[in-house]
Automatic annotation (TrEMBL):
Membership in a protein family: Belongs to the nitroreductase family.
Occurrences of domain Nitroreductase (ranges): 18-68, 76-163
Gene3D superfamilies on file: NADH Oxidase (3.40.109.10)
InterPro entries listed in its UniProt record: Nitroreductase, Nitroreductase-like
UniProt protein name: Nitroreductase domain-containing protein
Lineage: Bacteria, Pseudomonadati, Bacteroidota, Cytophagia, Cytophagales
Keywords: Oxidoreductase
Record GO terms (molecular function): oxidoreductase activity
Length: 209
């Protein structure tokens, strides 16, 4: 069973895996077996995409089997993320192919589809008692240079992958973030049936993801 720490409590019942999925920062150094890693990334291939293009690409760095790639991905991250991400056994980069393969026209939905694939991957990881933490805090230029990514492909996000570790391994401020209540906007703030709303303000609850 997946980690049940800090499970979401929502207005309406949804799949338990969706409530369990979160973005922790504490990892055990336990390696992720190659077969399990392949299973997680295979899940991404099941996601929907415009014209069935499947524009997602993933660069993967495993501390156990591809340490140079691991170090390059880690080095692309901001210092704040490196502090905790270096404990994860696997690091990865999601990348979008920006043109359609069938006609080479721009694919305006590529990043959207990459997000769908990575979300699907994260749910599969949760089912396998793994955890994923996606980040925007990285240098696109460093990733592009380290891996010689050609034109027409755009790094979208980096993420950690591994098994849950002890909360006590994190600095105190990050421990607080891990245990802070997880809050989501109520349905009325993002589901608008029939017309655009007349809400005067939009609330944002800063909580762990």
């Amino acid at each position: 069973m997946a980690d049940s720490t800090n499970v979401l409590h929502l207005e309406y019942p949804i799949l338990p895996l969706l409530m369990q999925r979160r973005s922790p920062r504490a990892y055990t150094p336990q390696p992720v077996p190659a077969a399990v890693l392949q299973q997680v990334f295979t899940a991404a291939s099941s996601a929907a995409s415009c014209f069935g293009e499947q524009p997602w690409r993933y660069l993967v760095g495993s501390r156990a089997s591809s340490p140079e790639a691991y170090d390059d991905i880690l080095g692309s991250m901001g210092e704040f993320n490196q502090v905790w991400a270096k404990s994860a056994p696997v690091l990865a980069v999601s990348i979008a192919k920006l043109t359609f393969s069938h006609d080479e026209n721009p694919n305006a939905w590529a990043r959207h589809d990459v997000g769908q694939a990575t979300a699907t991957l994260a749910i599969q990881a949760t089912e396998l008692s793994l955890q994923v933490h996606q980040m925007a805090g990285f240098s696109v230029d460093k990733i592009r240079a380290s891996f010689n990514i050609p034109a027409g492909y755009e790094p979208v996000a980096v993420f950690t992958l591994g098994y849950p570790g002890n909360l006590e391994s994190l600095p105190a401020p990050l421990q607080e973030k891990e245990t802070a209540p997880r809050v989501r906007k109520p349905l009325a703030e993002f589901m608008f049936e029939g017309a655009w709303p007349t809400l005067e303000t939009e609330r944002y609850d800063a909580a762990t993801v």
